[in-house]
Automatic annotation (TrEMBL):
Residues at the active site: E209, C243
UniProt-listed InterPro entries: Ald_DH/histidinol_DH, Ald_DH_C, Ald_DH_CS_CYS, Ald_DH_N, Aldehyde_DH_dom, Aldehyde_DH_NAD(P)
Keywords: NAD, Oxidoreductase
Pfam family, one: Aldedh
Protein name per its UniProtKB record: Aldehyde dehydrogenase
Keyword Coiled coil among record annotations: no
Example of a GO cellular component annotation carried by this entry: cytoplasm
Domain annotation Aldehyde dehydrogenase: ranges: 17-429
């Protein structure tokens, strides 16, 4: 069966109305939870194969996150499915007004390879919770996870209303040409533009969860040790292949030396003397992705303060710290998406904010300081999808916060209630009884209106 036929089948099932039922929605969430609990070991193995993730990292950042999301959604499904009564202006009386939370219809979920479980199943959970039928296309690059999802999803979820299709851009194009009602895309800004254009041509609504160069500013009053611990963790988690990973650090020049020393101490603490043999240090996704980042490193004119060892065949890049680089250095030309961290000295917050705002709006921006005035100033002046104060990455783990970008880093948001909003059409319904016909007053000729014009 082609991908286009799969979508057509799912559209047919959606039109029967069965996915709108609250019991169906809750059943799908329970089935997804069961799948994760029954197959956590197989999922961890697939993530180990694709990305070299250890079991703890797989649980914390993928399986556990989806379970968390399912829990948050389950609490809200029943009340969300009910219409919301709203007031009616006196001029429209007698009448009643309500907002119906309509599912979008058939949703195409397209996901990337870096968190291939989380970024496939978390949108899926939101889409079914809101009563949609779904076609999910995982990344063809994380092959072990792609295969596993294609095998497990039909065993647990409604096999007619929730389908997995495998493959790359051709498959996406086939489905887009068949006209899904909604597209939820997570991936690069480059492909995001392609998806947005295809959707615009067919008037398909969409969400884009994209990436960018999430920057950090470390102020001169920051708690240096804690800052180094948290930034080394946030940067090198999943070997830097995280959409909200710190891309580069602007550090106040007054503390730059001390901060760099703390970062080196922290690297030794977290990954030991030889990260290549450290069991918990992940790999790049492919030899090509490794080689591409190696090329950027080779083209950089910066100083290698630490690391730099690369083994493309083994998909290994040592945690690498680069200093003394300019804003137009090769390493600053794109989202690094790997374990390479430029550290740039700045004169203060104004200098850092100016540099941040010269670039495309990032998915996240981080500030490390003890000063409320600096925190406020950073929040007031930096445009970013999210802001982390003294903590990178972790805002993603709070289902009560919306997650999404702004400008080049995305359009729309999800997680928890925000997923329900995203996968729902808010439909206005005005119900006016025929018994007392006030509309008669508006039909031609309107009494007194002609006189008013002379
Ligand atoms: P990608 O854009 O290359 O691929 C994402 C998906 O799009 C894949 O399923 C792929 O098959 C499909 N695709 C690729 N080319 C296509 C085309 N020409 N037409 C139609 N579909 C196409 O992204 P990636 O390399 O898998 O992931 C890395 C990027 O994703 C980074 O930029 C990262 O920051 C971003 N990302 C964002 C988030 C977020 O939540 N905002 C999360 C993870 C990753």
């Amino acid at each position: 069966m082609t991908a286009a036929q799969t979508l057509a089948e799912v559209q047919h099932v959606y039109r029967t109305g069965r996915t709108r039922n609250v019991e169906w929605r809750l059943g799908q969430l329970s089935a997804l939870q069961q799948l994760l609990e029954d197959h956590a070991d197989a999922i961890e193995t697939a993530l180990q194969t694709d990305l070299g993730k250890n079991g703890f990292e797989s649980w914390v950042s993928e399986i556990g996150q989806v379970l968390h999301e399912i829990k948050a959604l389950r609490k809200q499904v029943a009340s969300w499915a009910k219409p919301q009564r709203v007031r009616t202006p006196i001029a429209l009386w007698p009448a009643s007004s309500k907002i119906q939370h309509e599912p979008r219809g058939t949703v195409l979920v397209i996901s990337p390879w870096n968190y291939p479980i989380l970024l496939s199943l978390s949108p899926l959970a939101g889409a079914v919770a809101a009563g949609n039928a779904v076609v999910m296309k995982p990344s063809e690059i994380a092959t072990a996870v792609e295969t596993l999802l294609a095998e497990l999803i039909p065993q647990y979820l409604d096999p007619h209303a929730v389908r997995v299709v495998t493959g790359g851009p051709d498959v996406v194009n086939q489905i887009l040409n068949t006209g899904p009602d909604y597209v939820f895309f997570t991936g690069s800004p480059r492909v995001g533009s392609i998806i947005a254009q295809a959707c615009a041509e067919q008037h398909i609504d969409y969400t884009l969860e994209l990436g960018g160069q999430s920057p950090v500013y470390v102020h001169d009053d920051a708690n240096i040790r804690t800052t180094a611990t948290r930034l080394v963790w946030g940067k090198f988690f999943n070997a830097g292949q995280t959409c909200v990973a710190p891309n580069h650090i602007y550090v106040h020049q007054a503390i730059a030396e001390k901060f760099q020393a703390a970062v080196l101490a922290e690297l030794a603490q977290q990954f030991g003397p030889n990260p290549q043999t450290h069991p918990d240090y992940p790999r790049m996704i492919t030899p090509d992705h490794t080689a591409s980042l190696a090329e950027l490193l080779a083209a950089s004119t910066g100083t290698t303060l630490h690391g730099g060892t690369i083994d493309a065949e083994q998909r290994f890049i040592e945690p690498t710290i680069i200093t003394d680089i300019a804003e137009d250095d090769a390493l600053m030309s794109r989202e690094l998406f790997g374990p390479v961290l430029p550290i740039i000295q700045v004169t203060g917050i104004d200098d850092a904010v100016h540099r941040i705002n010269q670039r495309a709006h990032p998915l996240a921006a981080y500030v490390f300081t003890e000063s409320n005035a600096i925190k406020d100033s950073f929040c007031d002046h930096v445009v970013a999808g999210a802001i982390g104060i003294n903590i990178p990455v972790m805002h993603v783990a709070n289902p009560h916060l919306p997650f999404g970008g702004v400008g080049a880093s995305g359009r729309g948001q999800y997680h928890g209630r925000w997923s329900l909003e995203t996968f729902t059409h808010h439909r206005a319904v005005l119900d006016k009884p025929t018994s007392c016909d006030t509309i008669k007053l508006l039909t031609q000729p309107v009494p007194g209106w002609a006189n008013r014009l002379v």
